[in-house]
Specification:
150 residues; alpha+beta; four-stranded antiparallel sheet; 3 helices; globular
Length: 150
């Protein structure tokens, strides 16, 4: 895996296209969930984008890392995604650990709050997150809030 951490304006046009295509392919098409994917958070100054490419140069892993005050009072990791061909290979764990490390480096005095799809709670608990809300529906999908104290 080759990893790349960038701000929005550092993405090439091809990388931006691949990020948006992956997010729409999985979150909108695969999960059959029409929602406003472009939410104006991608371009904010302190937001980071972590991209993971396989040896063939294909984007197969991605997260959007947000500073405190954008989605939650704490920093946040969102749009966590692994392309279908990368699933089941441990890439998601590496993606999350790298994303957590970015938060620790960029904003060391904050916790990380996420809104997780409920069926993925065990995965996020393996990363150290704890559930801190009741289940709620977001775009028709059961979610829970989870917190990681750094």
């Amino acid at each position: 895996m080759q990893w790349k951490l960038v701000h929005f304006n550092q993405l090439s046009l091809d990388e931006l296209y691949e990020v948006l295509k992956l997010r729409v392919d999985v979150f909108v098409v695969e999960q059959n969930c029409p929602y406003p994917e472009l939410d104006n958070k991608d371009r904010l100054a302190d937001v980071k984008h972590l991209l993971g490419f396989n040896p063939h140069g294909e984007l197969i892993a991605y997260t959007r890392i947000l500073p405190a005050g954008v989605s939650y009072p704490e920093a946040s990791i969102g749009r966590v995604i692994i392309a279908e061909q990368g699933r089941g290979k441990g890439i998601a764990h590496e993606l999350m650990q790298r994303s957590i490390d970015v938060v620790k480096t960029q904003w060391p005095k904050t916790s990380i709050q996420i809104g997780a799809q409920q069926h993925l709670s065990d995965f996020y608990q393996q990363q150290g997150f704890t559930v801190n809300s009741e289940m709620y529906l977001e775009d028709g999908i059961p979610h829970i809030d989870m917190l990681l104290n750094l």
